[in-house]
Design a protein that fits this description.
Layout: H1 12-29, H2 33-39, E1 40-48, E2 55-56, H3 57-65, E3 71-84, E4 88-100, E5 106-120, E6 123-133
Parallel strand pairs: 1-6
Antiparallel strand pairs: 1-2, 3-4, 4-5, 5-6
Helix pairs in contact: 2-3
């Protein structure tokens, strides 16, 4: 098994792609539908495998921009960051996040995620995602106000 990708050991294209992944997570802290939409390719299709079927671009925008709860903190662990021919990128990573529910309570969520991006004149745009939260990760509740945000 290959060693996890350390962000500081990545090449320039891979670092640029990993930065984009981090920017997307930053958008979940203060969601802006227009900015989220810009990051997604018009033909984007993703699948949170906890759902019965994949979703389209506008579904993804709405799930982040109008969700009743908000991401309050997160940590990302890159496992593999690859760029092919300078224009297609695939990122596999694990995440831990604190998410506020619509009722003001916070829950801890962790899981695995894969993102596929294409590079154009506008930079990296996401074309596909797939993953899911770990089954037991939503069971724990941290304090309603996390002491600090642990982001990479």
């Amino acid at each position: 098994m290959a060693a996890p990708a350390q962000a500081d050991a990545l090449g320039p294209d891979e670092r640029d792609l990993w930065r984009r992944v981090q920017e997307l997570w930053e958008l979940t802290l203060s969601p802006d539908a227009a900015k989220i939409r810009e990051t997604l390719h018009p033909d984007y299709v993703g699948w949170d495998m906890s759902s019965p079927s994949p979703h389209r671009r506008e579904d993804a925008v709405q799930s982040v921009a109008s969700a009743p709860g908000r991401t309050r903190a997160y940590n990302l662990d890159p496992l593999s960051v690859r760029v092919y021919d300078g224009k297609t990128g695939v990122v596999h990573y694990r995440y831990d996040a604190t998410v506020e529910s619509g009722k003001g309570r916070c829950i801890s969520v962790s899981g695995a995620w894969t993102e596929v991006h294409v590079k154009s004149g506008a930079g990296w745009q996401m074309v596909a995602v797939s993953g899911r939260p770990d089954p037991a990760s939503t069971a724990s509740e941290p304090p309603a106000r996390p002491d600090r945000t642990n982001r990479q």
